[in-house]
Amino acid sequence: MIKKIDASQLKVGMYIHDLSCDWMSHPFVRNRFKLSSDTEIEKIIQAGIHDVYIDTDRGLDVSDAPTQNEVETALQQEMLEIVSRADPVIIRVSAAEESQRAKQIKNQAASLVRNVMQDVRLGKAIQLEQVEPVVTNITESILRNSGALIGLMRIKNKDDYTFLHSVSVCTLLVAFCRSVGMNEEQTRQAGLGGLLHDTGKALVPDDILNKPGRLTDQEFDVIRRHPKDGFDILLKTPGVGEVPLDITLHHHERVDGSGYPDKQAGEGISTLAKMAAIVDVYDAITADRCYHKGMPATDALRKLLEWSKHHFEPRLVQAFMRCVGIYPVGTLVLLKSGRLGVVMEQNDGNLVSPKVKIFFSSKSNTYIPPQEIDLSKPMGKGGADKIVSHENPTKWGIDPNRFLTT
């Protein structure tokens, strides 16, 4: 049985099932292992990990600890309550109408980030006048229909992950800023910070950046230098503002002081750096990498909510959920009718009843003609269909992303 315990309850002989943090926050080669020494326990605590999941079938038990299912059920209910308080989503054009423009913007932005990284490796300066128009295009797409570009950013080529991750963070951060009412200039500066936040990774050797496995302690230290390296690079860029510098340097800080490079904590971290940290982790843990499979977006949001007890600002995590919905665009969902579908677009003021493209019957285990339905509207005399659960695409052998491009 999988249970959640406080790190202070750890004992030699327990089997770690999950360290309950994003992969860049812990220094262990493995995610799952049996504790063999007090040194390992101390290493977990020193890494800023406050709670873990243990497998009681493979190690010592804690009798009164909650099960993983109990924890996830409570978090899911909390998520539903959070998004029920969301303001209406402003959609100026349909996702279908924005889709083509969004594809062009995604490709343009990824190409730009690739060129920026190449220039940095060659010792060339970043040309801010080339970056700013791309951020403007992303912002305008978000204003027309945020779901179109956000949905497309779920589709990443593993080889281009570093570039596409930067575009994703920019896109999500711009949408996040708009949803919490930040003004145009703040949003523009945040977008620049999102697009350039990983510039320092240009100085990380490719064999470390793309290593198909856990990093050694030495490799981990090299990766952890990228915020400061990126900050130093941006300092040499004429016209760069304080916000992009702050986001680049501090997007790995955590509110409990366990982050890096400066171990800032609480109010010592700016709001925009806290927001960047949330979207950075969200995009990282939902993406397929050479060393781990990305988790479904809804699971990632639930993890962010769980980690907000220590690592993230709770009110900002809740605001991010209200921004993207607990079933973000691209999420595979199971409906009450037994049909499977992909979330295509959020609905104004109803984030638990989005527009969904159905394409598969779980009852007959067969594909059905694709059809887009609006879950916020009544569906015949039997009442509207509704989402029963989000599903892991791997379980069904389905790639929901292909429906976002058709």
From TrEMBL:
A family per Pfam: HD_5
SMART domains the UniProt entry points to: HDc (SM00471)
Domain HD-GYP as annotated: residue spans: 140-336
InterPro entries: DUF3391, HD/PDEase_dom, HD_GYP_dom
Molecular function GO terms recorded: phosphoric diester hydrolase activity
Organism superkingdom: Bacteria
Protein name: HD-GYP domain-containing protein (C-di-GMP phosphodiesterase class II)
